[in-house]
Inverse folding.
């Protein structure tokens, strides 16, 4: 019963969020997130290639038997990208909401550094 | 052997510089989006938010996306895949039940 109620609440919030999204709330562009991911993955692939070249001199090729010689970078599918955009947006909105709660409790109307500091520990645990 | 290493490091240096300028551009665009999302959310909560704090949150988000990219790649490779799927994104949110649940329901749409 409790779980169902919680689930309903989450679904409600998502509907509200998507309604707002359709109208005014800014979101992250999937293309931007894809470009950032791609850049990080290409860099990682290059690093792996370099360490691969350095390792083959020292180690047996047994270890490299299962992997392909050419290291291709990872890529993501469009739905995963959209979900990642949503995840990032939630990260920011959660941070702001939590900091706003702290600011409100302190009686301020402006979110300042001290409010942000208070939310950081729980933020790092949750994300 | 040494000559080859020198040539490669020059090429690598060039690539790195180009990489850096691309990454700067991406980071700036990301920051702009992050700032507008944060400000819109602050308005929704009925609060003002000071500019350095918004910039701080944008930087935090940029660090987070770096971590997210690494995690997603690890999950995909661990599952023997070359491409990242929605399941990977949902798994990366495993630390927070509510977050994972809401991502899951978004993914069903």
């Amino acid at each position: 019963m409790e779980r169902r109620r919680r689930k309903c609440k989450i679904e409600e919030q998502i509907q509200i969020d998507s309604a707002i999204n359709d109208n005014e709330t800014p979101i992250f562009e999937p293309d931007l997130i894809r470009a950032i991911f791609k850049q990080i993955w290409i860099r990682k692939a290059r690093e792996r290639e370099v360490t691969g070249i350095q390792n083959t001199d020292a180690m047996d090729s047994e270890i490299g038997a299962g992997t392909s010689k050419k290291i291709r970078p990872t890529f993501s599918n469009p739905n995963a990208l959209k979900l990642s955009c949503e995840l990032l947006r939630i990260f920011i909105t959660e941070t702001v909401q939590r900091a706003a709660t702290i600011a409100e409790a302190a009686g301020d109307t402006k979110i300042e550094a001290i409010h942000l500091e208070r939310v950081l520990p729980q933020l790092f645990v949750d994300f | 052997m040494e000559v080859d290493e020198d040539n490669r490091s020059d090429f690598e240096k060039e690539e790195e510089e180009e990489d850096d300028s691309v990454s700067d551009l991406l980071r700036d665009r990301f920051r702009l989006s992050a700032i507008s999302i944060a400000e819109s959310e602050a308005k929704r909560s009925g609060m003002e938010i000071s500019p350095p704090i918004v910039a701080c949150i944008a930087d935090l988000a940029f660090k987070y996306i770096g971590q997210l990219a690494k995690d997603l790649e690890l999950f995909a490779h661990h599952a023997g895949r070359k491409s990242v799927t929605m399941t990977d994104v949902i798994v990366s949110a495993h630390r927070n039940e509510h977050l994972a649940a809401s991502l899951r329901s978004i993914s069903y749409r």
Observations:
- The longest helix of chain A spans residues 30-58.
- The two ends of chain A are 28 Å apart (CA to CA).
